[in-house]
Prior knowledge:
By secondary structure, this protein is α/β, with parallel strands linked by helices. It is built from 13 helices and 12 strands. β7, α7 (about 140-145) and β8 form a beta-alpha-beta unit. α1 (about 25-30) runs parallel beside α13 (about 260-285) and α12 (about 250-260) crosses α13.
Amino acid sequence: xxxxxxxxxxxxxxSKAGACLTLRNxxxxxxxxLSYYLHELxxxxxxxxxxYLPDLRAYCGxxxxxxxxxxxxxxxxxxxxxxxxxxxxxxxxxxxxxxFSIVLKLKPDIVVFPSCxxxxxxxxxxxxxxxxxxxxxxxxxxxxxxTTNFGSYLIYDQKTAFSDFLRSLKKYDEKSVYLAGEFDxxxxxxxxxxxxxxxxxxxxxxxxxxxxxxxxxxxxxxLETQMAQLHEVIDAECACPTCEQKFTRAYLHHLxxxxxxxxxxxxxxxxxxxxxQHIRSEDQA
Length: 285
């Protein structure tokens, strides 16, 4: 019988919630991979800085697996990818050639390209290093493209029932799949059982900054008033840095109200650890 491949959890470092943690915080949680969205990097620090550095790792300092996610880039009728910076309002424009050159310069372990890049990539794929894992945003064209070097990147947008989404994954059985979306713990179990290789999600961090915290007894709302009277750790079975420090629900409730930026770091670490351990436990089941 064919051995099931390991499922890897990939948090998003360049999101508002993900950026609340330092690299050391992520290491303490036990995360082995981080996702950096290319459009965010092109806004800040900008490509000019990368011209003076050997690669993305030299800039960010992360020693684990690096995912460079360019899935949100969209091409206009002129064949140019363009987007507006939310820092200074400037418009950033890059061509297919520039996109590919940027990826080769940054040297990620994994790259996710938009589906419109497939035609270009099919012609110039031989220029990519063999160790670079390439995923293409999934559509009918990419499914039919039988180059085994390319995996499929799929996004679950919750517009369809999860059961229907799972059934739709069958067409990708012959490909390595990188999946992004907001998945609850039960959905995670099904995805791991399905053999999904990579699961990217910002949900644990977003839930944490909004006070929604995971426990083995179900989610709790830390901002509810009764939490101020609960002098127990978030989860007695959890070994995350936050629970290991014995911070109580009452203390974290007060901290989230009075010093939210500090508290969010503790809560994100807890949720990310809990999410990661749930994937690993299902992976070993």
